[in-house]
Design a protein that fits this description.
The structure is a single chain. The protein has 126 residues and is mainly alpha-helical. It has a domain at 35-107. Helix content is 55%, strand content 3%. It contains 3 helices and 2 strands, in the order H-H-H-E-E. The protein has helices at 2-13, 36-70, 81-102, and strands spanning 119-120, 123-124. The protein has a two-stranded antiparallel sheet with strand order 1-2. Strand 1 (119-120) and strand 2 form a beta hairpin. Helix 2 runs antiparallel to helix 3 (81-102). The radius of gyration is 20 Å and the shape is elongated.
Length: 126
């Protein structure tokens, strides 16, 4: 009995404490009141943050795979907060691009391209 309890505590202690994703809402209050300049600034900022979050999550996935296979399976972070947050920002950018087109904002073609969405093992997340 004591061995089973000790083993259970060891398993629980070895699990990753993954943070919950804080997803940005695609639609936000006041979206229709945004100016073309405000839309462009938010779109560009979202793109940079999403690119960074997705790259970080993909690097973490490789590290977790290595550690999970060689050290302990409890080291996998299955919540993928950064990747899912990055995808939420890309979703928001789809809406912002639509708003910019509806308002006939100039310079949309010069806006930065979007990074690839975060995926886990080829499966689309979010």
């Amino acid at each position: 009995m004591k061995i089973a309890l000790a083993l259970s505590l060891l398993i629980l202690a070895g699990c990753v404490q993954a943070r919950e994703p804080q997803l940005v809402a695609m639609n936000q209050t006041g979206d229709n009141m945004l100016t073309c300049d405000q839309i462009a600034v938010e779109y560009k900022a979202n793109t940079e943050v999403a690119r960074s979050k997705i790259a970080k999550n993909e690097a973490n996935d490789r590290k977790e795979l290595f550690l999970g296979i060689l050290v302990w399976p409890g080291l996998f972070d299955l919540k993928n907060a950064d990747g899912n947050e990055g995808n939420a920002l890309l979703d928001r950018n789809i809406l912002l691009l639509g708003l910019a087109k509806a308002k006939a904002c100039p310079g949309i073609g010069a806006w930065p391209g979007q990074p690839e969405r975060y995926t886990l093992n080829g499966y689309r997340m979010g």
